[in-house]
Amino acid sequence: MARQITSSCNFIFGASDMKSLPDESAPEIAFAGRSNVGKSSLINLLINSKKAARVSSKPGCTRQINFYSMYNDKFRLVDLPGYGYSHAGKEEIIQYLNLIEYYLIQRKNLRRVFVLIDSKVGLKEIDKDFIYWLIYNNINFNVVLTKIDKVSQKSLDAILEDTQKWINNENVSIHQISIRIKHKITKGEVSFEQKAEILLEVLSNIPSFVGETFVIKCGSVTISDETLFYTFVHNVVLLKQLGINPVIVHDGEYEINSVLKMLGMDSKFVNGIRLTDKDTIKIIEMALCGSVNKKIVQHINSAGGSAIGLCGKDGNLIKAEKISATLKEDRSNNIEKILDMGFIGRPTEINPDILFFIEESDFIPVIAPIGHGKNGETYHIDADSTASTIAIAVSASKMITFSDTGEEIDKIGGRKISVKNLNASIDCGKIQGEKFIRRLMAYTKMVEECAGVVHIVDGRIPNIMLDLFTENNSSISIVSDL
């Protein structure tokens, strides 16, 4: 029988054998580590209770798997028995280690394991053996350094460097936390306890979107920066593991420009749009579909996810039509000239069937903004328009667009704006720039036709996507009505 701990948490029960494990109806996040590493203390902090998980100075007090149901069982925190030295008897140790192994391998609803490492001693051989075992069995995990208040900053830096160096090729994020102290907060700094509170807030808000689709437009800055890209793909995988269906749409201007420059091909832009002839569209398609798309797919797979790369030609995914640009011949008059932009298009129709099929699987679709015309022409499409049109076709609840410069956030101002107020700001000239306004029109179309929300985030900030699941997030939200 469940025992209520806080308004948001229930202790379900402790499982001491395979038969007593609870049902697999809710996503689970497990905490593992050596005996007395601080698992119970961390769980108590996360669920805002001092007595939920028993804390003891004697190693090995947790001898069963304890389950904590969060927010009406939207997800569960799982406290695993510690491995290593224990006051338990040999037979009992073997019994609960077998239980841990069974749980980690067989549990279908296990989304991620946090492996706790005592920063006073760093990685021990038994930790490395456990991590190798997780990798061998394809179990997703992150590392958390605990008790960082017990070591000097110099020692902590050395432990962190050694841990990162050892685990460098395993695509694993490393976090740091202290349970017992609260540091003074100055501008730009966050206490360790606040970090834990933020983690809980993220974990508690994500399950409310389980089963929903997020279309995420990833910009060039995020893809080309190693740190930003690393956190991006890991966050995408985490969303999928927690039951959200991410659909990735990417651009790749940095790669297009690099290849064109290498080939000695100059580009001309009109109103922010590249003039694209037959030779140029071939280069663009190669850069987007053959390079950038494959890079994202590969890194999502390496981070523990399963991604599949698509362009608009695959499965008739994106039908497009040619667009032209309007250019004033002379600033002194209103005479306008219609300019043929070549193989630049706009999306006219999305075939959602292939995306619905992928949505039912464990795969994450990664889409390059290349479409095809009615006569088989290839068109390069703006990534924001592509993402917006796809979001409408699949009835996404959110569209998240990564800004390369943060200009959208600076120009719009505020943190939430309605479509009506955004259009008014454009009409009165408060918001200017033809290319910028085109992007905003794509966003408002998604909000109006899909009844969803568009979040504009600063793509230059690591882990910015998880920030969306906190109450005071830093994104710009475009909504249908305030």
Automatic annotation (TrEMBL):
- List, alphabetically, the SUPFAM superfamilies matched: Carbamate kinase-like, P-loop containing nucleoside triphosphate hydrolases
Per the record, its GO cellular-component terms are:
cytoplasm
Q: Which PROSITE patterns match?
A: G_ENGB
Pathway per the UniProt entry = Amino-acid biosynthesis
Indicate the segments annotated as coiled coil, or none if absent: none
Identify the domain of life.
Eukaryota
One of its GO biological process terms is: amino acid biosynthetic process
Query: Care to name a GO molecular-function term for this sequence?
Result: metal ion binding
Q: Which cofactor does it need?
A: Mg(2+)
The EngB-type G domain sits at: 25-191
As for family, the record states:
Belongs to the TRAFAC class TrmE-Era-EngA-EngB-Septin-like GTPase superfamily. EngB GTPase family.
Protein name per UniProt: EngB-type G domain-containing protein
Origin species, per record, is Timema poppense (Walking stick)
